[in-house]
Amino acid sequence: MTQQQTSPDLLMTPLHDLHLAMGAKMVPFAGYDMPVQYALGVKKEHIHTRQAAGLFDVSHMGQLRLYGVQAAAALERLVPVDIMDLPVGKQRYALFTNEQGGILDDLMVANMGDHLFLVVNAACKQQDIDHLRAHLPSDVILDVVEDRALLALQGPAAAEVLARWQPKVHDLIFMDIQPMEINGIDCIVSRSGYTGEDGFEISLSAEQAANFAAMLAEAEEVEWVGLGARDSLRLECGLCLYGHDLNETTTPVEASLLWAISPVRRKGGAREGGFPGAEMILSQIETKTVTRKRVGLVGVTKAPVREGTELFDSKGNQVGIVTSGTVGPTAEKPISMAYVQSDLAILGAEIFAEVRGKRLAMRVEKMPFVPQHYVRG
């Protein structure tokens, strides 16, 4: 990834000039100058992604490779996930945990055959690199990828668009990942994303990224989409944002991420525990006792309920806090993620959000707030 600087503090992705040419509004994000929206605007970009195809620059994310015969075993000692049995050509959602069971970052791990390919959050990138360097054995080589961009093409038309240059993308199902050539460019393509829609994430040479992105953007179905709509899309589909819905004081059980803890790593599993915070996390799973849980909330009124809003029960006791919130352009109602007392983390429970001095009613509802459309085969 290019390390040119727009100021003493901000980095640019390889697509920076293209964003400016497309009229993007740029904002600082995770140390980068990033597009928050384009001329279409956040709401229309969101809806377009749900209806056709949105193109996202996610080159600020960290791309890492792990080499060595012990790479899978070594990484598995840092995450509560089955890495050793991850098939070649598949990727898996994972969590770095600390000794208290808190979440240091969430990431994607792929088995590329001769190495593991990791994509980590931009804001945690250096921390994750340091964490890996501190804990990996000497026979596992960490390669920090600096010369590649990362694009996401998301939406119901994504496969049709990408297949015009490489029909093999139709053979992929959700969480598959393969090296493939697209219009003469060597890419790593995964059928995955952060919107709840079908789509692809494409890692490719930084030098070729701008021309490749411009090629995709010329398709009638494709519009550029910025960070604003990326956030509302992921929230509608119940996907967490690290630093907001997840942090180092939150356990996977509190975060309602039990599905991200592989059965083989749980109590009674073939490779039980063995990751940081295992005692705390496995105890919480077994006893089903946590004081708070992540839930989805839907507003009874039309007022948006934003991050940081305090939550109360019917008796006026503070019972939680909102970690993400907006009015969902597709859901067409106020939606939020929040942590609430465990006894209120039940579907249909009524909770009150304090917005500008008023207590607004909200209901606990199942996430995702809109259906996910992953192609699972």
CATH superfamily of the largest domain: Probable tRNA modification gtpase trme, domain 1
The oligomeric state of the chains shown is single chain
Q: Which consecutive residue ranges, at least 5 long each, have pLDDT under 50?
A: 1-5
Total separate domains:
2
Taking all residues together, what is the mean pLDDT? 97
Radius of gyration: 21 Å
- CATH architecture classification of the largest domain: 2-Layer Sandwich
- Tell the overall outline: globular
**Main β-sheet, in a few words?**
6 strands, mixed
Query: Class by helix and strand content?
Result: alpha+beta
Distance between the termini: 33 Å
* Strand residues, percent: 25-35%
Total number of helices: 8
Helical proportion, percent range = 10-25%
How many β-strand runs? 19
Family: Belongs to the GcvT family.
InterPro entries: GcvT, GcvT/YgfZ/DmdA, GcvT/YgfZ_C, GcvT_C, GCVT_N, TrmE/GcvT-like
Enzyme class: transferase
Keywords: Aminotransferase, Methyltransferase, Transferase
Can you give me a brief rundown of this structure?
The protein has 377 residues and is α+β, with helices and mostly antiparallel strands. The protein folds into two domains: 9-288, Gyrase A, domain 2, CATH 3.30.1360; 291-368, Beta Barrel (Elongation Factor Tu (Ef-tu), domain 3), CATH 2.40.30. It has helices at 16-21, 42-51, 71-76, 125-135, 158-162, 206-217, 227-236, 278-287; strands spanning 25-29, 32-37, 53-57, 62-67, 91-97, 103-111, 116-120, 141-145, 148-154, 177-182, 185-190, 199-205, 222-224, 292-299, 310-312, 318-328, 333-341, 350-355, 358-365.
